[in-house]
Amino acid sequence: MSRFQPPGPGQDDFAEMVAExxxxxxxxYDEAINQSTVVSVGKIAGSIASAVTLLSPxxxxxxxxxxxxxxxxxxxxxRALAAEAARRSEAGxxxxxxxxxxxxADEPLPAPPRSDDLxxxxxxxxxxxxxxxxxxxxxxxxxxSTLHRWQRRGDVIALRKGGRKHVFPxxxxxxxxxxxxxxxxxxxxGNPRLAWLWLTRPTAQLDGRIPIDLLRAxxxxxxxxxxxAFAPG
Length: 233
Fold this sequence. Notes:
Blueprint: H1 11-29, H2 35-53, H3 57-65, H4 70-91, H5 99-104, H6 115-127, E1 130-131, H7 133-140, H8 144-153, E2 159-160, E3 166-169, E4 173-174, E5 177-178, H9 182-189, H10 192-199, H11 211-216, H12 220-230
Antiparallel strand pairs: 1-3, 2-3, 4-5
């Protein structure tokens, strides 16, 4: 189980908490919606959120990598769920069925990566978009000498990509500079990979918020304190 899971006494409690939040949001969004539908939507959302936290880190990263496709996949899931519910209602039974699973399995799998892209994707499937010094110089105006100076001082997170080459997560840059607080987080956590993993996942120390999003919003002190609490003893 990943250490980045939402905290709480149990998965059922977590699912119920999500369900209640979704019910309140949905009721506020559409006051005319049927109450039983509100409850059902909350239960669906809570169950899915709870199930995702139980996935292996590999499968969680796989979901992260296809975030742009999630609305379409979710829509397909809901339609299949509604069709299965209607079928059960018409049949007058709540027995087990494989129809929903079979429907979802029709979604075509993405093409496998080319071998020359594999190394980069092994980083990007958990770190998000990364780039080397050439890209940063040409697109963000960051001189190589400046980038290397930041790296030596620990002002920027650099991830090793085979041999001695490093790549830099793009989300840490705003206006051509690393966001304030990156160096403080690195000092607390130490390992650049662990630091970036922590920065880009919801964390209990920040009430489920994502640290890098807060740094980009200049909320530095809260993130540094949370990093200090997270850091290995």
